[in-house]
Amino acid sequence: MVVQIEGVTKRFGSRDVLHDIHMHIPEHSIFGFVGANGAGKTTLMKCMLGLLPLTAGAITIAGEKVTFGETKSNAHIGYLPDVPEFYPFYNARQYLELCAVVTDMPKKEWKQRIDELLELVGLADVTSLIRTYSRGMKQRLGIAQALLNRPKLLICDEPTSALDPAGRAQILSILQKAKAETTVFFSTHILSDAEQICDHVAMLHKGEIIFQEELTKLKQQFHDQFVYTFTVPAKEAMKQLASTQAKMHIEDDTLIVSLPNDRARLVFMRELTQRELIVQSIHPQTRMLEQVVLEVLG
Amino acid sequence: MNSWVGFFKKEWFESVKTYKLLLVLVIFSILGVLNPFTAKITPVLMENFMPEGAVLNLPEPAALDSWLQFYKNVPQMGLIVFILLFSTMMSKELEKGTLVILLTKGLHRSTVITTKFFIALCYWTLAIALSFSITYAYTAYYWDQNSLHHLFFAVSCLYAFGLLLLAITLWGNTFFATSSGGILVTLLFMISLFIFAIFPKSHSWSPLELMATPPEILTGDVIPSDLVIPYVLTIGLTLFFVWLTTTHFKKKLL
Amino acid sequence: MNTDVEILIEYLPFLIPLILLQIGLGIFSAVHVIRNPHYRFGNQVMWLLIVLFIQFIGPLVYFVFGRGDDHGRAN
């Protein structure tokens, strides 16, 4: 486990922003940290970086305990803030060189590592100053600086939320590549982003972890669900199908049916034809996280 | 040590790119020329503005007048300009959040403060050296400065006082994290020094003496040993404020 | 009249550097104001007047407080 978070509570004034958080992040995984804006995601990340003192509990990163202020554990972390800010008068290479000095990287390793990273984030051919960068470019430079000293843990705070779809796809693919050499912990409020690349997902709601699971297990849990739409409203269809064995519920005028095996699926098809329900579309359930959110909060 | 030098280079690069070098060079050159110029032209102007026939017995300007202008212009105009230039060193980074990444990369918080103070110190050294040498060159060309005492000691007093104000500005700027914080704290400090100066007893220790007495040092009315306490106190306070800024910044929430 | 010219010549060693520095700084700042039309506050005309007509404090205030940092913010 590269990160162990044990019973962390963070109080601002009389309000618990984080309440008794327990979380374990295994190595070489992508850990998605999902929650609405204001749920406390950034607060937990800042606690992990020693930028905020804890009210209770402890955080250990790569075997090093996190302390407030200057903390040794930061040597193992690369951090990408939600809106990364750089010195506008540098270009990408100059900025990464500054980061390299600050991290005490041996000088002869600089060039190769910086070339490697600029290639990874697609900034190798950009020579203009950072002040001319778009948000997406800043975000990518942010990942490059975070990966510079080959950290054991990469913390990204909402890396995709301010970007357009193309920029988001770029960031997600970079994070996926980064998994080869580090562990990625990233927060997002966009569920589909987490679903696309994560191995583990934890969900924070009002300062508490309400859900923490491996995504593959989640997929098993949901692989038997199918989404149907009919020529008649879903409500009516459900009324007609009420006598069947299948478990089902309605969502956004679609009927979601659990059909665990081939036999059940065939039976269900027969029921449909018997009742003269015309299927407009059918596809397997993919929005698993949304389902979980609705179930847990519902 | 490497990261100290690295961050110092960044500070230097930034100061050039934000035109601080240019401004310091130009403004303190102007001040340097202005001192002997004002000293030389004042009597001429006075005569021209006098009504016809009035005879004015103005003494010929001398080297002392040029240096009096120096100790009027540099502390007033020069120091104010300088404090303004370097008053947003910390707040700019704190407001934008540019330090967060570097600090989480293991940059020591004390490095940030000490490099920033040191770059301001370098610029102040440059500014004073520039103004001083230009005024010195002109004065030496037009007048005889042999009668003046302790030229270099006098300017070092002003230099030390400037460093104290820089340290206080840096502290205020870090503590309040706004661009006006440093200026306000420095202003309050100056006001309280002037209030102390009302009481004659304060003249034996107040750092303000370093700014006020250089003309009397030049004429020989004050000798360097009279200023030992203000001098030591000023340097001590400077170090204290740099230390205070560092300890405060170490526990600052970002 | 004659004496005025003499006085002028006598003070040339002061006037030349003073005028060069002041005007140079003013023009440099004005060019910067025109070429970088992004300011933290105020508009171009205001900053042009300030850097050209307030001697050396004008350019200082412009470069320290008025000059904008970012050129492009769009995606």
UniProtKB/TrEMBL annotation, chain B:
Coiled coil: none annotated. It holds the Pfam family ABC2_membrane_2. One of its GO terms (cellular component) is plasma membrane. The chain crosses the membrane at residues 21-39, 74-91, 112-138, 150-171, 183-200, 228-246. Keywords: Membrane, Transmembrane, Transmembrane helix. One of its GO terms (molecular function) is ABC-type transporter activity. This is Uncharacterized protein. It comes from Sporosarcina newyorkensis 2681. The lineage of its organism: Bacteria, Bacillati, Bacillota, Bacilli, Bacillales.
UniProtKB/TrEMBL annotation, chain C:
It is found in: Cell membrane. Residues 26-67 form the Cardiolipin synthase N-terminal domain. Pfam families: PLDc_N (PF13396). Keywords: Cell membrane, Membrane, Transmembrane, Transmembrane helix. It is a multi-pass membrane protein. The keyword RNA-binding does not apply. GO terms for cellular component: plasma membrane. The keyword Metal-binding does not apply. The chain crosses the membrane at residues 12-34, 46-65. This is Cardiolipin synthase N-terminal domain-containing protein. The lineage of its organism: Bacteria, Bacillati, Bacillota, Bacilli, Bacillales.
